[in-house]
Amino acid sequence: SQCGSLIGKGGSKIKEMRESTGAQVQVAGDMLPNSTERAVTISGTPEAIIQCVKQICVVMLESPPKGATIPYRPKPASTPVIFSGGQAYTIQGQYAIPHPDQLTKLHQLAMQQTPFTPLGQTTPAFPGLDSSPPASTHELTIPNDLIGCIIGRQGTKINEIRQMSGAQIKIANAMEGSAERQITITGTPANISLAQYLINARLTSEVTGMGTL
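and the corresponding structure tokens:
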């Protein structure tokens, strides 16, 4: 049901996204197998894709799904593959059968690759144990009269923002005599950036009189 909001009347919304971000956006016509979801394909420069994803998240946040949602769950491979001692095996019944050479070679090649280190970061003493970006924290303050649009009924909006951004978001209790509430966002820089974007979108929507709690 959210695809309609994403496309807009006569395709107006998706056209607006394409023009404002420079990314190509395509919504699949058919639903994914055994689900009520449709695939959305985004292509373009990394920056264009990021901006487009942010705008899609805002649309999803402001247009909750109507009716029951059946999520798409991809089926696992028919024969699971395990790797042991540089050899690939497929599981057949109760036995592990050696797998064709191609998968074994692919696994060996992957094990030989040097772990990727982002610019500005040092290689960890134990490669692979610290590959994720370090978590950081960002704090912002929101006026008490606007905090409701961020939280939503029974915490629905703040939970949606947490799920979409992947960040941990904590809202401090109201302080006596203070007209503001403090919000603490924790996560990777990308998580924090998306959480801030979604919070600002909620505030803008509320201030312009378009928000619904």
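(Above: one complete record from the training split.) Residues 2-62 form a domain with the Ribosomal Protein S8; Chain: A, domain 1 fold (CATH 3.30.1370.10).
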